[in-house]
TrEMBL record, chains A, B:
Source species taxonomy: Bacteria, Pseudomonadati, Pseudomonadota, Alphaproteobacteria, Rhodobacterales
Pfam family, one: LacI
Protein name, per record: LacI family DNA-binding transcriptional regulator
HTH lacI-type domain residues: 7-61
Organism: Sagittula salina
Matching InterPro entries: HTH_LacI, LacI/GalR-like_sensor, Lambda_DNA-bd_dom_sf, Peripla_BP_I
Keywords of the record: DNA-binding, Transcription, Transcription regulation
Amino acid sequence: MSDVKIRNMEEFAALSGISRPTVSKYFHDPESVRPSTRARIEAALEQYDYRPNIFAINQNRKQTKTVGILVPYLADPVFAEFARNIEQRCVDMGYRPTIFSAHGEQETENEILENLRAQKPAGALLAPLGRASDVAAVKAFCKDVPTVLFDSILPDVGMAFIGSDNPQFTRLIVDYLCRTGEPPCFFEMKTPTNPNARKRRQSYLDAMQALGQEPQVFSVDGADWHFEEIGRQGGHQVLRSGEMKTNTVLCSNDRLAIGFLTACYELGLKVGRTEDCAIRVAGQDDHPFSRYTCPPLTTIAQDYDSVSREAVATLFRAIEGEDFPYSIKLFEGKLVMRESA
Amino acid sequence: MSDVKIRNMEEFAALSGISRPTVSKYFHDPESVRPSTRARIEAALEQYDYRPNIFAINQNRKQTKTVGILVPYLADPVFAEFARNIEQRCVDMGYRPTIFSAHGEQETENEILENLRAQKPAGALLAPLGRASDVAAVKAFCKDVPTVLFDSILPDVGMAFIGSDNPQFTRLIVDYLCRTGEPPCFFEMKTPTNPNARKRRQSYLDAMQALGQEPQVFSVDGADWHFEEIGRQGGHQVLRSGEMKTNTVLCSNDRLAIGFLTACYELGLKVGRTEDCAIRVAGQDDHPFSRYTCPPLTTIAQDYDSVSREAVATLFRAIEGEDFPYSIKLFEGKLVMRESA
DNA sequence: ATATAATTTTTACGCGCGATAAATTCTTAC
DNA sequence: GTAAGAATTTATCGCGCGTAAAAATTATAT
């Protein structure tokens, strides 16, 4: 490895003994040049450590190799998991993904979209804030950048939506809970930002009706992303109110459930499905930590892998020029039975 | 808002009635032009929605407005919290931060560093993998990009290191535990990737000696980033071995502690500091979820805010041309007393 | 050996903006 | 009203690379 500093492709081409346009072609696609010239370029590459200037490339290509990934709240392990999964898949496709988080705020989401658009990405994978999103802004973004939405749907925005079949989630776990004990009441935030929450509530009501059970919904205050705290405080409220007609609680998501479990602990209520327990608690999502709560949380596992894979696949079909109508694809969840219910 | 599409600064300048160099100057610093011309530009800006091409800008400026943020594992809420905090501060400084995660792998860390370098960022904030880092690669990166390391130190790499005073953490909690009950044994991973873990162990040994207590260390297997699972399995192992000479366990970090708590639960051991409890468990870090474990985890709170603030401030002093010698700044932790110990 | 196809080289332009120097216009103070 | 100072305009390069067309070279098939 020589330590001669190479300023640009011109210099590198001269040193490798190949013309600049051919070198340029090589960097665009190594397979597109004759094996013998490829070998010469790669030999020079090992000797001189040159990399094309990424800004000059992006300025001149209509399409960059950048992919934007935007999630509503990165400190939420569910989205950290999605981001990690999707990022890896983009890298494998030879693209350069960048992760952004809206931190739960519309203004931030819009700013990120603006900045992202300026980078002319090849595409974007977007889990919008949901109810808190500026739909017009997201739509405008999608007009410029091929975008696939995931996790949280904004109807007819983007090229496709990939997510979880929330009604199925809730049906499945309501069914299980009814089969194994008292029918559950439903614990949720009054004003959830995520549209999935509304679907889960509705699906709870439907499932209970289908089973001939009387539903009971507790909607607690709290509008930000501190779900555990909302679950804990709301849990205290509900548990102390004495209004619960059942010993079983289905939480709208695992993070609320984690907080609810804390409330149970603080009130001295033993949680679980054995005889000596006072209450059963279940969640939805299979949050990465739900295996480690005490007791471990019974929940419905999101199919992170399938959702991520399909979202990325769909985006790249679009990037590669395939034309297809707007579509929605939902994946089913699996019941994860643990001790809490 | 007119829907005339503007191709470049030339066109925009013409439409706003100002010359291109002045417009360019405006975008570089709005304060640098006369108020009357600023008003005219901003009026045109509202009418025509033009944004300078970011690639062209970065190609021509020696220094970009990009800042790279790299953490070892973004799905770990501790690093998600750091990333969020630091990102916000960079935005406030008028820069465009980008978050990357090494996902616990050296190869990924190196690739990110390579890509980042190609982007000629104004600076970088780096929490390296630690023991698993390719020190030479990181050093090479720091030679090209002003870099401040945080959380995990690589001695003499970067312009400065900002982190937590791990010995103080451990001293503080060992002290507390000894004062309020039996002296703790220490629970850790045998081969931690993070150098802080070694400091904590050593500091545990020192603190115990200073207090005239006999130390006991349990080092369990497991080398990846699934700390909770390592804590759980290791917990089972330790608890069943019968080798614990005390009823108090200090875990090297909160994530291990969370897994250890699960092990306790699974073995039917009641955790807490009341008389009816079999064991006390404490962690270190004040992981965002440690408030919600059952029982809530007693721990030492990292000063996320101070570390982030100081790291960003140090970086920007360097970016703005200030010259200073390599320095290390450590922040103290605060004892967070909860029910687990 | 020759014709044909496939690559590579040469040459030249363009992308959108930063930067600079000289010429011009505007501001401010007297 | 005038002169000095500040801001703006005009004109012109340069950044590093994509891209296109024509000319030259090489590889492949007959």
